[in-house]
Amino acid sequence: MGSLVRSTTGEGRASEPPPVAHLNVLVVDDHSAYRALLGYFLQKLGVGHEAVGDGCQGLLAVIKRPFDLIISDCQMPQMDGYRMARAIRQHECRKGLKRVPIIALTANLQNDDPQRCRDAGMDAWLLKPLALEQLQATLARWLPGIAPVWGRPTAGAWPTRAHLVQTFGNERVVDQMLASLLDEAWEDFAFLDQACRTLSTPLTTQRLHRLVGSLAFLGGADLEFRGVKLIEQIHADGVLANASALQAFRADLRRCLEYLRSL
Fold it and tell me: How far apart are CA 111 and CA 234, in angstroms?
């Protein structure tokens, strides 16, 4: 997870964000915490944005008004990022519109590999956990007027409250982010238990993907890695064959969520 490091002038004052508020970025992600995080980063960079929760809403937003850039999660219910990107490219061709850059957002380039992104009409990708420097560099490549203002942060396995405050800027934002993320994570945790009981591979991997996104958001590297490997194993062998690994993962995940709730 990236943390926020303000660049300064020679007098030690924080530099002002560039005057690029006329630019508009569309953020498409089914994780409300990631939508809030990206919105917070874009606001700090002085870039206007709109955020929606799935590919269908993203496509409708593009049809309604133009955007300078789109950042979209790859894996979403209803319409995923790949289908949305293809639909946007078709819309541009039909209307004779300028091609808008589409940046893929993914926690795992093994499942969402660059070639698959390119084939869908995407132009680049951002990896979760998202570092501010990484976001800034991508925006600077595709949008005019974005200047380098962020530095590279450090990350830990389980974040401390101090680390979160450093990452998000202040206590109020941390409380909002944690509340939103934990509400979604506990809901996904309950659905994961249900999916495991029914031995449903699609539902189990879907909820694991969302939980891995939560862990990537906070920099929970060990659990995130285990979650990604579990998704691969369940796709290959099914839920029942991975029952023991799933049980151990859920127990450790519960401990992690309880820890985060105590922050």
Answer: 13
